Protein backbone atom coordinates (compact mmCIF):
# COMPACT_ATOMS: atom_id res chain seq x y z
CA UNK A 1 0.00 0.00 0.00
CA UNK A 2 1.45 3.37 -0.93
CA UNK A 3 1.98 6.20 1.51
CA UNK A 4 -0.82 8.73 1.88
CA UNK A 5 -0.06 12.14 0.42
CA UNK A 6 0.51 14.93 2.91
CA UNK A 7 -2.29 17.52 3.29
CA UNK A 8 -0.02 20.12 1.64
CA UNK A 9 0.24 18.02 -1.52
CA UNK A 10 -3.43 17.13 -1.68
CA UNK A 11 -4.66 20.67 -1.03
CA UNK A 12 -5.91 22.28 -4.25
CA UNK A 13 -3.52 24.88 -5.60
CA UNK A 14 -5.10 28.32 -5.99
CA UNK A 15 -4.15 29.73 -9.39
CA UNK A 16 -2.67 33.20 -8.99
CA UNK A 17 -2.63 35.08 -12.26
CA UNK A 18 -4.07 37.61 -12.92
CA UNK A 19 -4.82 38.38 -9.28
CA UNK A 20 -1.73 40.53 -8.66
CA UNK A 21 -3.01 43.03 -11.20
CA UNK A 22 -6.59 42.74 -10.00
CA UNK A 23 -5.71 43.42 -6.37
CA UNK A 24 -4.41 46.85 -7.42
CA UNK A 25 -7.33 47.68 -9.69
CA UNK A 26 -9.85 46.47 -7.09
CA UNK A 27 -8.84 49.18 -4.62
CA UNK A 28 -10.25 51.91 -6.87
CA UNK A 29 -13.21 49.80 -7.99
CA UNK A 30 -11.94 49.40 -11.56
CA UNK A 31 -12.53 45.66 -11.93
CA UNK A 32 -15.27 44.57 -14.28
CA UNK A 33 -18.08 42.64 -12.68
CA UNK A 34 -16.98 39.13 -13.66
CA UNK A 35 -13.43 39.95 -12.53
CA UNK A 36 -14.68 41.30 -9.22
CA UNK A 37 -16.68 38.14 -8.60
CA UNK A 38 -13.68 35.95 -9.33
CA UNK A 39 -11.43 38.13 -7.23
CA UNK A 40 -13.87 38.03 -4.29
CA UNK A 41 -13.99 34.26 -4.60
CA UNK A 42 -10.20 34.15 -4.73
CA UNK A 43 -9.96 36.23 -1.54
CA UNK A 44 -12.64 34.18 0.15
CA UNK A 45 -10.54 31.11 -0.61
CA UNK A 46 -7.83 32.63 1.59
CA UNK A 47 -5.08 34.23 -0.51
CA UNK A 48 -2.80 36.01 1.98
CA UNK A 49 -0.71 37.52 -0.80
CA UNK A 50 -3.67 39.33 -2.35
CA UNK A 51 -5.04 40.33 1.07
CA UNK A 52 -1.73 41.99 1.86
CA UNK A 53 -1.52 43.75 -1.49
CA UNK A 54 -5.11 44.86 -1.17
CA UNK A 55 -4.40 46.24 2.30
CA UNK A 56 -1.46 48.27 1.01
CA UNK A 57 -3.23 49.73 -1.99
CA UNK A 58 -6.35 50.53 0.05
CA UNK A 59 -4.17 52.91 2.03
CA UNK A 60 -3.02 54.45 -1.25
CA UNK A 61 -6.57 54.85 -2.53
CA UNK A 62 -7.47 56.51 0.77
CA UNK A 63 -5.07 59.31 -0.10
CA UNK A 64 -7.37 60.29 -2.96
CA UNK A 65 -10.04 61.10 -0.38
CA UNK A 66 -7.52 62.92 1.80
CA UNK A 67 -6.67 65.42 -0.92
CA UNK A 68 -10.25 66.62 -1.46
CA UNK A 69 -11.22 70.13 -0.37
CA UNK A 70 -13.18 70.44 2.86
CA UNK A 71 -16.95 70.64 2.46
CA UNK A 72 -19.02 72.26 5.22
CA UNK A 73 -20.49 69.48 7.37
CA UNK A 74 -24.05 70.28 8.60
CA UNK A 75 -23.89 71.05 12.31
CA UNK A 76 -26.95 68.91 13.09
CA UNK A 77 -25.66 65.82 11.28
CA UNK A 78 -24.05 64.33 14.39
CA UNK A 79 -27.29 64.75 16.34
CA UNK A 80 -29.30 63.08 13.58
CA UNK A 81 -26.88 60.17 13.50
CA UNK A 82 -26.91 59.67 17.26
CA UNK A 83 -30.72 59.83 17.33
CA UNK A 84 -30.85 57.03 14.75
CA UNK A 85 -28.35 54.93 16.68
CA UNK A 86 -30.21 55.44 19.95
CA UNK A 87 -33.51 54.51 18.34
CA UNK A 88 -31.98 51.41 16.79
CA UNK A 89 -30.42 50.38 20.11
CA UNK A 90 -33.71 50.80 21.95
CA UNK A 91 -35.47 48.64 19.41
CA UNK A 92 -32.92 45.85 19.74
CA UNK A 93 -32.40 45.89 23.51
CA UNK A 94 -35.92 45.65 24.90
CA UNK A 95 -35.56 41.96 25.72
CA UNK A 96 -32.23 42.22 27.58
CA UNK A 97 -32.34 41.30 31.26
CA UNK A 98 -31.28 44.02 33.71
CA UNK A 99 -28.50 43.68 36.23
CA UNK A 100 -30.31 42.50 39.39
CA UNK A 101 -27.81 44.20 41.72
CA UNK A 102 -28.84 47.69 40.64
CA UNK A 103 -31.48 49.96 42.16
CA UNK A 104 -32.69 47.52 44.77
CA UNK A 105 -30.75 49.30 47.52
CA UNK A 106 -32.66 52.51 46.95
CA UNK A 107 -35.93 51.01 48.07
CA UNK A 108 -37.03 51.20 51.72
CA UNK A 109 -38.02 47.55 51.75
CA UNK A 110 -34.66 46.52 50.38
CA UNK A 111 -33.73 44.56 53.50
CA UNK A 112 -36.65 42.23 53.04
CA UNK A 113 -35.49 41.50 49.53
CA UNK A 114 -31.81 40.85 50.29
CA UNK A 115 -32.17 37.10 50.47
CA UNK A 116 -34.29 36.98 47.35
CA UNK A 117 -31.81 39.30 45.69
CA UNK A 118 -28.86 37.06 46.54
CA UNK A 119 -30.71 34.05 45.20
CA UNK A 120 -31.41 36.08 42.08
CA UNK A 121 -27.76 37.03 41.71
CA UNK A 122 -26.62 33.42 42.10
CA UNK A 123 -29.29 32.32 39.64
CA UNK A 124 -28.21 35.06 37.27
CA UNK A 125 -24.57 33.94 37.64
CA UNK A 126 -25.52 30.38 36.69
CA UNK A 127 -27.63 31.67 33.83
CA UNK A 128 -24.78 33.91 32.70
CA UNK A 129 -22.22 31.06 32.80
CA UNK A 130 -24.55 28.80 30.88
CA UNK A 131 -25.13 31.55 28.33
CA UNK A 132 -21.37 32.02 27.96
CA UNK A 133 -20.87 28.31 27.31
CA UNK A 134 -23.73 28.33 24.81
CA UNK A 135 -22.26 31.37 23.05
CA UNK A 136 -18.84 29.70 22.89
CA UNK A 137 -20.36 26.52 21.50
CA UNK A 138 -22.25 28.60 18.92
CA UNK A 139 -19.00 30.33 18.04
CA UNK A 140 -17.22 26.98 17.56
CA UNK A 141 -20.10 25.71 15.44
CA UNK A 142 -19.96 28.86 13.31
CA UNK A 143 -16.19 28.61 12.84
CA UNK A 144 -16.47 24.94 11.88
CA UNK A 145 -19.15 25.83 9.36
CA UNK A 146 -17.01 28.67 7.97
CA UNK A 147 -14.05 26.31 7.69
CA UNK A 148 -16.12 23.73 5.84
CA UNK A 149 -17.43 26.45 3.50
CA UNK A 150 -13.94 27.78 2.89
CA UNK A 151 -12.66 24.31 2.05
CA UNK A 152 -15.55 23.83 -0.34
CA UNK A 153 -14.89 27.23 -1.91
CA UNK A 154 -11.18 26.53 -2.29
CA UNK A 155 -12.09 23.34 -4.06
CA UNK A 156 -14.52 25.21 -6.31
CA UNK A 157 -12.25 28.05 -7.38
CA UNK A 158 -9.37 25.70 -8.08
CA UNK A 159 -11.45 24.16 -10.87
CA UNK A 160 -10.59 25.44 -14.30
CA UNK A 161 -14.14 25.36 -15.62
CA UNK A 162 -16.07 27.31 -12.99
CA UNK A 163 -18.91 29.56 -14.07
CA UNK A 164 -19.82 32.78 -12.32
CA UNK A 165 -22.99 34.82 -12.07
CA UNK A 166 -23.53 38.29 -10.66
CA UNK A 167 -26.86 38.68 -8.86
CA UNK A 168 -28.69 41.99 -8.90
CA UNK A 169 -31.25 43.18 -6.37
CA UNK A 170 -34.86 43.61 -7.49
CA UNK A 171 -37.78 45.53 -6.00
CA UNK A 172 -37.55 45.97 -2.22
CA UNK A 173 -34.04 44.54 -2.36
CA UNK A 174 -32.79 47.01 -4.96
CA UNK A 175 -29.64 47.70 -2.94
CA UNK A 176 -28.78 44.03 -2.64
CA UNK A 177 -26.29 42.20 -4.78
CA UNK A 178 -24.42 38.94 -4.76
CA UNK A 179 -22.55 36.39 -6.78
CA UNK A 180 -22.39 32.68 -7.43
CA UNK A 181 -19.37 30.59 -8.36
CA UNK A 182 -20.58 27.33 -9.87
CA UNK A 183 -18.55 24.20 -10.52
CA UNK A 184 -20.14 21.97 -13.19
CA UNK A 185 -17.73 19.19 -12.24
CA UNK A 186 -18.79 19.22 -8.58
CA UNK A 187 -22.40 20.23 -9.34
CA UNK A 188 -21.93 22.63 -6.49
CA UNK A 189 -21.86 26.36 -6.05
CA UNK A 190 -20.91 29.07 -3.59
CA UNK A 191 -23.45 31.85 -3.06
CA UNK A 192 -22.66 35.19 -1.42
CA UNK A 193 -25.27 37.92 -0.91
CA UNK A 194 -25.00 41.43 0.48
CA UNK A 195 -27.52 44.02 1.66
CA UNK A 196 -30.60 41.81 1.66
CA UNK A 197 -33.15 43.20 4.12
CA UNK A 198 -33.81 41.06 7.22
CA UNK A 199 -37.08 39.12 6.98
CA UNK A 200 -39.92 38.93 9.52
CA UNK A 201 -40.35 35.76 11.60
CA UNK A 202 -41.74 32.85 9.59
CA UNK A 203 -39.98 33.88 6.37
CA UNK A 204 -36.68 32.83 4.84
CA UNK A 205 -34.77 33.48 1.66
CA UNK A 206 -34.61 30.56 -0.76
CA UNK A 207 -31.99 30.10 -3.45
CA UNK A 208 -32.97 28.59 -6.83
CA UNK A 209 -31.03 27.36 -9.82
CA UNK A 210 -32.81 27.16 -13.12
CA UNK A 211 -32.06 24.88 -16.04
CA UNK A 212 -34.43 25.58 -18.91
CA UNK A 213 -37.87 26.41 -17.54
CA UNK A 214 -37.55 24.38 -14.34
CA UNK A 215 -36.37 26.12 -11.13
CA UNK A 216 -34.70 23.74 -8.67
CA UNK A 217 -34.58 24.52 -4.93
CA UNK A 218 -31.01 25.03 -3.75
CA UNK A 219 -31.34 25.89 -0.08
CA UNK A 220 -32.87 28.33 2.35
CA UNK A 221 -30.94 30.88 4.35
CA UNK A 222 -31.17 33.86 6.67
CA UNK A 223 -29.06 36.99 6.52
CA UNK A 224 -27.15 38.66 9.35
CA UNK A 225 -27.76 42.17 10.68
CA UNK A 226 -26.14 43.78 7.65
CA UNK A 227 -27.88 41.59 5.09
CA UNK A 228 -24.97 39.26 4.41
CA UNK A 229 -25.03 35.50 3.89
CA UNK A 230 -22.72 32.94 2.30
CA UNK A 231 -23.45 29.30 1.64
CA UNK A 232 -22.28 26.32 -0.33
CA UNK A 233 -25.07 24.59 -2.26
CA UNK A 234 -25.22 21.28 -4.06
CA UNK A 235 -27.80 20.67 -6.79
CA UNK A 236 -27.84 17.79 -9.21
CA UNK A 237 -27.39 19.81 -12.35
CA UNK A 238 -24.31 20.61 -14.37
CA UNK A 239 -24.77 24.10 -15.77
CA UNK A 240 -27.66 26.18 -14.44
CA UNK A 241 -28.60 29.10 -16.69
CA UNK A 242 -30.21 31.36 -14.12
CA UNK A 243 -29.79 31.84 -10.37
CA UNK A 244 -32.40 33.54 -8.21
CA UNK A 245 -33.35 34.23 -4.61
CA UNK A 246 -36.96 34.50 -3.49
CA UNK A 247 -38.73 35.15 -0.20
CA UNK A 248 -40.58 32.06 1.02
CA UNK A 249 -42.16 30.55 4.13
CA UNK A 250 -39.57 29.38 6.67
CA UNK A 251 -38.16 26.04 5.58
CA UNK A 252 -38.62 26.77 1.89
CA UNK A 253 -41.04 25.80 -0.83
CA UNK A 254 -40.93 23.10 -3.54
CA UNK A 255 -41.45 25.78 -6.21
CA UNK A 256 -40.97 29.55 -6.04
CA UNK A 257 -44.06 31.35 -4.81
CA UNK A 258 -42.73 34.55 -3.26
CA UNK A 259 -41.17 37.63 -4.82
CA UNK A 260 -37.80 37.39 -6.56
CA UNK A 261 -35.29 39.64 -4.77
CA UNK A 262 -32.04 38.68 -6.51
CA UNK A 263 -31.41 37.27 -9.96
CA UNK A 264 -28.54 36.71 -12.36
CA UNK A 265 -27.44 34.59 -15.30
CA UNK A 266 -24.47 32.32 -15.75
CA UNK A 267 -21.38 33.66 -17.44
CA UNK A 268 -19.07 31.00 -18.79
CA UNK A 269 -15.69 30.90 -17.07
CA UNK B 1 -9.69 67.91 29.86
CA UNK B 2 -11.24 65.55 27.34
CA UNK B 3 -8.91 62.79 26.19
CA UNK B 4 -9.27 61.42 22.69
CA UNK B 5 -8.74 57.69 22.24
CA UNK B 6 -6.91 56.25 19.22
CA UNK B 7 -9.30 55.16 16.44
CA UNK B 8 -8.64 51.45 16.94
CA UNK B 9 -9.54 51.80 20.62
CA UNK B 10 -12.68 53.69 19.63
CA UNK B 11 -13.71 50.88 17.30
CA UNK B 12 -13.22 48.33 20.08
CA UNK B 13 -15.33 50.46 22.40
CA UNK B 14 -17.99 50.83 19.70
CA UNK B 15 -18.07 47.04 19.44
CA UNK B 16 -18.86 46.99 23.16
CA UNK B 17 -21.74 49.38 22.61
CA UNK B 18 -20.23 52.63 23.90
CA UNK B 19 -22.01 55.51 22.22
CA UNK B 20 -19.41 58.06 23.28
CA UNK B 21 -16.85 56.12 21.23
CA UNK B 22 -19.04 56.47 18.16
CA UNK B 23 -19.30 60.22 18.80
CA UNK B 24 -15.53 60.52 18.98
CA UNK B 25 -15.07 58.30 15.93
CA UNK B 26 -17.55 60.48 14.03
CA UNK B 27 -15.76 63.66 15.10
CA UNK B 28 -12.45 62.20 13.98
CA UNK B 29 -13.52 61.12 10.50
CA UNK B 30 -16.61 63.05 9.51
CA UNK B 31 -14.76 65.70 7.53
CA UNK B 32 -12.85 63.13 5.49
CA UNK B 33 -15.98 61.05 4.91
CA UNK B 34 -18.15 64.04 4.08
CA UNK B 35 -15.64 65.41 1.55
CA UNK B 36 -15.53 62.06 -0.23
CA UNK B 37 -19.28 61.44 -0.22
CA UNK B 38 -20.09 64.93 -1.52
CA UNK B 39 -17.48 64.48 -4.25
CA UNK B 40 -19.13 61.26 -5.39
CA UNK B 41 -22.87 61.90 -5.01
CA UNK B 42 -22.72 65.68 -5.71
CA UNK B 43 -25.93 66.31 -3.83
CA UNK B 44 -25.85 67.49 -0.22
CA UNK B 45 -29.18 65.95 0.80
CA UNK B 46 -28.04 62.57 -0.50
CA UNK B 47 -24.62 63.10 1.07
CA UNK B 48 -26.16 63.71 4.52
CA UNK B 49 -28.05 60.43 4.27
CA UNK B 50 -25.07 58.47 2.97
CA UNK B 51 -22.75 59.81 5.68
CA UNK B 52 -25.20 58.77 8.39
CA UNK B 53 -25.43 55.31 6.82
CA UNK B 54 -21.64 55.05 6.78
CA UNK B 55 -21.30 55.77 10.49
CA UNK B 56 -24.28 53.54 11.31
CA UNK B 57 -22.45 50.79 9.46
CA UNK B 58 -19.26 51.37 11.46
CA UNK B 59 -21.37 51.12 14.63
CA UNK B 60 -23.06 47.90 13.57
CA UNK B 61 -19.92 46.29 12.18
CA UNK B 62 -17.32 47.51 14.67
CA UNK B 63 -16.86 43.98 16.02
CA UNK B 64 -15.93 42.82 12.52
CA UNK B 65 -13.17 45.36 12.04
CA UNK B 66 -9.87 43.57 11.55
CA UNK B 67 -6.78 45.80 12.00
CA UNK B 68 -4.67 43.39 9.97
CA UNK B 69 -6.72 44.29 6.90
CA UNK B 70 -6.19 48.04 7.07
CA UNK B 71 -6.20 51.16 9.20
CA UNK B 72 -9.43 52.57 10.64
CA UNK B 73 -9.12 55.39 8.12
CA UNK B 74 -8.86 53.00 5.18
CA UNK B 75 -11.82 51.04 6.59
CA UNK B 76 -14.13 54.02 6.98
CA UNK B 77 -13.09 55.50 3.62
CA UNK B 78 -13.75 52.17 1.91
CA UNK B 79 -17.22 51.97 3.49
CA UNK B 80 -17.93 55.59 2.54
CA UNK B 81 -16.89 55.14 -1.07
CA UNK B 82 -18.90 51.96 -1.39
CA UNK B 83 -22.07 53.54 0.04
CA UNK B 84 -21.63 56.68 -2.04
CA UNK B 85 -21.11 54.75 -5.28
CA UNK B 86 -24.25 52.72 -4.46
CA UNK B 87 -26.19 55.98 -4.06
CA UNK B 88 -24.73 57.36 -7.29
CA UNK B 89 -25.69 54.24 -9.26
CA UNK B 90 -29.12 54.24 -7.69
CA UNK B 91 -29.63 57.86 -8.78
CA UNK B 92 -28.50 56.96 -12.28
CA UNK B 93 -30.95 54.03 -12.38
CA UNK B 94 -33.75 56.40 -11.35
CA UNK B 95 -32.82 58.47 -14.37
CA UNK B 96 -31.46 61.40 -12.43
CA UNK B 97 -28.86 63.37 -14.27
CA UNK B 98 -25.55 63.14 -12.48
CA UNK B 99 -22.83 65.15 -14.11
CA UNK B 100 -19.53 63.44 -14.67
CA UNK B 101 -16.85 65.76 -13.50
CA UNK B 102 -13.14 65.29 -13.57
CA UNK B 103 -11.87 67.04 -10.54
CA UNK B 104 -9.32 69.78 -10.75
CA UNK B 105 -10.12 71.02 -7.27
CA UNK B 106 -7.24 69.71 -5.26
CA UNK B 107 -7.61 70.75 -1.65
CA UNK B 108 -6.60 73.95 -0.05
CA UNK B 109 -5.18 72.26 3.01
CA UNK B 110 -6.93 73.14 6.28
CA UNK B 111 -6.52 70.11 8.52
CA UNK B 112 -6.25 70.38 12.25
CA UNK B 113 -2.65 69.68 13.08
CA UNK B 114 0.81 70.04 11.63
CA UNK B 115 1.37 66.37 10.84
CA UNK B 116 -1.97 66.11 9.05
CA UNK B 117 -1.14 69.27 7.17
CA UNK B 118 2.25 67.92 6.09
CA UNK B 119 0.70 64.62 5.13
CA UNK B 120 -2.02 66.27 3.08
CA UNK B 121 0.46 68.58 1.38
CA UNK B 122 2.64 65.62 0.52
CA UNK B 123 -0.24 63.65 -0.97
CA UNK B 124 -1.74 66.65 -2.72
CA UNK B 125 1.66 67.29 -4.25
CA UNK B 126 1.98 63.67 -5.33
CA UNK B 127 -1.48 63.70 -6.86
CA UNK B 128 -0.73 66.97 -8.61
CA UNK B 129 2.42 65.46 -10.06
CA UNK B 130 0.60 62.56 -11.60
CA UNK B 131 0.20 62.88 -15.31
CA UNK B 132 -3.23 64.31 -16.06
CA UNK B 133 -4.11 61.16 -17.97
CA UNK B 134 -3.28 58.97 -14.98
CA UNK B 135 -5.20 61.15 -12.55
CA UNK B 136 -8.29 61.36 -14.71
CA UNK B 137 -8.50 57.59 -15.07
CA UNK B 138 -8.06 57.11 -11.33
CA UNK B 139 -10.83 59.60 -10.72
CA UNK B 140 -13.19 57.99 -13.20
CA UNK B 141 -12.81 54.73 -11.30
CA UNK B 142 -12.73 56.03 -7.76
CA UNK B 143 -15.27 58.86 -7.87
CA UNK B 144 -17.50 57.88 -10.79
CA UNK B 145 -17.60 54.14 -10.05
CA UNK B 146 -16.62 53.19 -13.60
CA UNK B 147 -14.93 49.88 -14.30
CA UNK B 148 -11.87 49.65 -16.53
CA UNK B 149 -13.97 48.52 -19.51
CA UNK B 150 -16.39 51.42 -18.98
CA UNK B 151 -13.46 53.83 -18.72
CA UNK B 152 -11.99 52.47 -21.96
CA UNK B 153 -15.36 52.98 -23.67
CA UNK B 154 -15.75 56.48 -22.21
CA UNK B 155 -12.26 57.68 -23.10
CA UNK B 156 -11.64 55.70 -26.28
CA UNK B 157 -8.38 54.35 -24.85
CA UNK B 158 -7.38 50.72 -25.30
CA UNK B 159 -8.23 48.59 -22.26
CA UNK B 160 -4.58 47.71 -21.70
CA UNK B 161 -3.67 51.40 -21.54
CA UNK B 162 -6.40 52.04 -18.98
CA UNK B 163 -5.11 49.23 -16.78
CA UNK B 164 -1.52 50.34 -17.07
CA UNK B 165 -2.26 53.98 -16.29
CA UNK B 166 -4.40 53.19 -13.26
CA UNK B 167 -1.78 50.83 -11.89
CA UNK B 168 1.11 53.20 -12.51
CA UNK B 169 -0.84 56.11 -11.01
CA UNK B 170 -1.52 54.17 -7.83
CA UNK B 171 2.07 53.02 -7.72
CA UNK B 172 3.33 56.61 -7.88
CA UNK B 173 0.99 57.62 -5.07
CA UNK B 174 2.16 54.63 -3.09
CA UNK B 175 5.76 55.73 -3.40
CA UNK B 176 4.78 59.19 -2.18
CA UNK B 177 3.10 57.95 1.01
CA UNK B 178 5.22 59.24 3.86
CA UNK B 179 6.66 56.98 6.53
CA UNK B 180 5.13 53.72 5.38
CA UNK B 181 6.84 50.48 4.67
CA UNK B 182 5.64 48.24 1.92
CA UNK B 183 5.90 44.55 1.64
CA UNK B 184 6.85 43.10 -1.70
CA UNK B 185 3.73 41.62 -3.27
Describe the structure.
The complex is a heterodimer of chains A (269) and B (185). Chain A has 6 helices and 8 strands, in the order H-H-H-H-H-H-E-E-E-E-E-E-E-E. Chain A has 269 residues and is an alpha+beta fold. Chain A is 40% helix and 22% strand. With 185 residues, chain B is mainly alpha-helical. Helix content of chain B is 67%, strand content 0%. Chain B contains 8 helices and no strands. Chain B has helices at residues 7-15, 19-41, 44-60, 72-93, 114-129, 132-142, 148-155, 159-176. In chain B, helix 6 packs across helix 8 (159-176). The termini of chain B are far apart. The interface between A and B is large, with 50 and 75 residues.
Q: Could you give the order of the helices and strands of chain A?
A: HHHHHHEEEEEEEE
Number of helices, counting only DSSP H or I runs of 4 residues or more of chain B: 8
Radius of gyration of chain A: 25 Å
- Given as residue ranges, the uncertain stretches of chain A (5+ residues, pLDDT < 50) are 1-14, 95-115
Give the terminus-to-terminus CA distance of chain A: 39 Å
Secondary structure layout plus pairing:
The complex is a heterodimer of chains A (269) and B (185).
Chain A (H helix, E strand, L loop, with lengths): L6 H4 L8 H8 L6 H12 L3 H19 L10 H17 L16 H48 L5 E7 L7 E7 L4 E7 L8 E9 L2 E8 L7 E6 L7 E8 L10 E6 L4
Antiparallel strand pairs in A: 1-2, 1-8, 2-3, 3-6, 4-5, 4-7, 7-8
Helix pairs in contact in A: 2-3, 2-4, 3-6
Chain B lengths: L6 H9 L3 H23 L2 H17 L11 H22 L20 H16 L2 H11 L5 H8 L3 H18 L9
Helix pairs in contact in B: 1-2, 2-3, 2-4, 3-4, 6-8, 7-8
